[in-house]
Design goal:
Length: 509
């Protein structure tokens, strides 16, 4: 067995975790939800959800994997053998997510490469909003199987970059994140300065930071804030188990988790400043939407061509915007693959590099589905089920497993092992893991079911055929949660035929 890799410094781990947590959702979904839910009111609820749920769950995953030195599958097995399927579910769902996330990454690369076209679209909203559709040839419906050559090339580049970043696990990730974490912050600051100096930017910033307290009575505000915190921190996706397993024994998990969480929130707010000031400056505040795809590829291009009367300058800021999205997307993309790779390699005693190659190859082939003409529609369906149902249910199960069938005091001891000034209090940690988080997530899960079956009549989108919603939605969900039981059959077969021996994963006091 190879010696397990470690982060070469505390800063490297923090940067890697921040890079994973900070992704495209920070840049486009967070500002859209803030616009939808009364600006400052959403920020307040988001902060509350971060304190009550996000930080404790982040601490939990990092500390458990640091103690057991395993990825998600074996870490959950260390909590209890009956809970191994939860680790498999988290790993399988992460694999599903990276199959289409890599395509969004490719689309961002495609827009960056073609940002020069904004130079000839000054004031032409129609041309700007249709550029993405012209390049991808997407129909927005379940029809069309052609793959545009330009998109295919960008997808190959995306997967090449993903593999390059994680080819040697923690060692290569550590080198990459020193650039990819700071680069988007610098680019966001450039865009924030530009946005804030535009006439009308004040109206946008006022809308972002002024709370509309009447919005607090809307249940969807609370649902969206809890969901954004949950999705944003890369928890329940096998990622933090993998990253936590590389953390040194002398790491201060309690403090590091807080730094990671608030760095994630700070970049979200900075993204909000960029989006609101730019939209305010171009008179497009009312065009903001919670749909990330729509914001990045339809709405924001319209703002780009209205930034100035100078075409090349607009194109330059368009290039900066999509370069910023590239630097945000790459960390999240390769961290998901690393989470899956570490978990599978640990389980089957395989070389991590070989597993990473296999995962990139298999996911790369599957991702071809999402760059076809019907790819956007298929991506929309898979993304809805992967996040609105799978990820949330995995979160509930993790909280039940660790909070109710294991000793939270052991986990807390691991969290506080190296901290002196700040010690995570038991009442806060236990209240979150045992009660607040599982109840909030269960409520979010039920809410999504109500929206699907009561408000939408059982169909996610009437424009999509039912067979597609079953195949790309419910069938994927069944496979995600059945993956642990399928893996058990494989393991038993390997035991009989190959003499395979599972590791004994024990939490030693």
């Amino acid at each position: 067995m190879e010696k397990r890799g470690e982060w070469n410094s505390r800063l490297t781990f923090i940067l890697a975790a921040v890079g994973s947590a900070v992704g495209l959702g920070n840049a486009w979904r967070f500002p859209g939800l803030a616009a939808k839910h009364g600006g400052g009111a959403f920020l307040l609820v988001y902060l509350l959800a971060m304190l009550l749920m996000g930080i404790p769950l982040l601490m939990m995953e990092i500390s458990v994997s640091r103690k057991l030195r395993k990825g998600a599958i074996e870490s959950m097995r260390g909590i209890g053998k009956k809970w191994e399927f939860v680790g498999w579910s988290a790993t399988s769902n992460a694999f599903v997510i990276v199959c289409y996330y890599s395509v969004v990454f490719a689309w961002v690369i495609l827009m960056f490469v073609n940002s020069w076209q904004f130079a000839g679209m000054t004031g032409d909203n129609k041309a700007a909003s249709s550029l993405f559709f012209d390049l991808t040839k997407t129909t927005g419906a379940i029809e069309g199987a052609d793959i545009p050559g330009g998109v295919l090339l960008c997808l190959l580049v995306a997967w090449g970059l993903i593999f390059y970043c994680i080819r040697n696990g923690a060692k290569s990730v550590g080198k990459v994140v020193k650039f990819t974490v700071f680069a988007p912050v610098v680019l966001l600051l450039i865009m924030a300065v530009k946005g804030c100096t535009m006439p009308g930017a004040g109206a946008g910033l006022t809308k972002l930071f002024t709370p509309d307290f009447s919005a607090l009575s809307d249940p969807s505000l609370w649902v969206d804030a809890v969901g954004q915190v949950f999705y944003s921190l890369s928890i329940m996706m096998a990622i933090m188990f993998a990253y936590g397993s590389y953390v040194r024994d002398d790491a201060n998990v309690a403090v590091d988790a807080i730094i990671i969480a608030f760095s994630d929130m700070a970049i979200s707010v900075l993204s909000g400043v960029v989006m609101f000031s730019t939209m305010g400056g171009t008179g497009m505040l009312d065009n903001m939407t919670a749909s990330g795809i729509s914001t990045a590829f339809i709405v924001y291009p319209q703002a780009i061509v209205n930034l100035t009367n100078i075409g090349w300058l607009n194109a330059l800021f368009g290039a900066i915007f999509y370069l910023m999205l590239i630097t945000l997307a790459i960390d999240s993309a390769f961290s998901i693959v690393e989470g899956v790779s570490a978990a599978v390699a640990d389980k089957f005693h395989l070389k991590p590099r070989n597993v990473t190659i296999a995962i990139c190859a298999i996911a790369g082939v599957i991702s071809l589905l999402f760059i076809t003409q019907m790819g956007l529609a298929m991506l929309d369906i898979v993304d809805n089920w992967a996040n609105s149902f799978n990820l949330i249910l995995i979160g509930v199960l993790e909280c039940v497993a660790i909070g109710w069938t294991f000793s939270l005091r052991k986990v807390l001891k691991e969290i506080n092992r190296n901290t002196k000034r700040f010690k995570t209090p038991y009442w806060w940690f236990a209240a979150s893991v045992k009660f607040i988080s599982p109840l909030l997530l269960a409520g979010l899960f039920v809410w999504n079911l109500i929206v699907l079956f009561v408000q939408k009549g059982g169909t996610y989108d009437p424009n999509y055929p039912i067979w597609a919603q079953i195949a790309a939605g419910w069938a994927v969900t069944v496979l995600v949660f059945a993956s642990g039981f399928i893996a058990k059959i494989v393991v038993n077969h390997k035991k009989k035929k190959e003499g395979f021996v599972e590791d004994e994963v024990i939490w030693e006091d």
